[in-house]
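re: ur question from earlier - yeah i can do the single chain one, its not a big deal. heres the input i used so u can compare w yours
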Amino acid sequence: MALATADRSSASRNGGRACASVGVLAAFMAVTSATATPSSPQCHGAKQVSAPVVQAQRLRGGQQVEQGQMEAIDFVFADRATVPGYLGVDCQAELLEHVRSMNADRILLVTEENVDKSHGKYWQPLIDSPDAPPVEKIVLPPGDAAKSWEHLHELVRWNFDVGATKKTVIVAFGGGALLNVAHLYASIAYRGMKLVSVPTTFLAMHDVVTSLKTSICFDGRKNNVGTFYAPQKILIDVGFCRTLPPAELFSGLGELAKNACLFGRDHAEGF
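and the output i got, formated as tokens:
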């Protein structure tokens, strides 16, 4: 997976993945600190440059990206797909507009219990909007419990019960496990439906979305049923990290540190 900046120029596969990590890290640091963070690489084509991040201000088309705005990025999955992505902090209005603008006949929101308790109202402005399509929601169990054959079957049955068509947009809203099963469901219904990925955990924001892998756990085995499938958009609001328990944050930071060690040089400077 590779990622590029707002000019949508593509980068190398590994360099881009590192850029995805440091981009989310920069926004995360802005969420957790009101002061300037250490300089972190930003991606300009395949070149890495250092730039300080202050109070979630980043660059979009040569201009600062203020809190509430989203920076445009590209997720380039080798020769498989290029997915437009958008990254910001407390960017609810712009994120919802990205979903609304897809001209769906209805929106199917797939989430899980913990996320629904903490962020269920996040989608209320879209639900209440007279210009938006109908929004249907299904709530799965948290964690790997959602990644079962039974819940995959439940999603497919729900899909047709609510009258989904090929113009319907599925929104996967949750952590890594929820994204896995929701993406798998999107990949098989109608042989592939429009999909938007909205990760809510730190790990999912920089690791899960940098892969096209979908999966469930079947017959006691881990991730043994799945596909490769690209969403139409990846929308990241790092503000969701505020509600994560410390263990979840350290899990995400640990994965970032591992990637930094693997890529080395400029990528490891922030650690």
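The helical segments are 13-32, 92-100, 113-119, 124-128, 149-161, 176-188, 202-206, 246-263. not sure if urs matches, ping me
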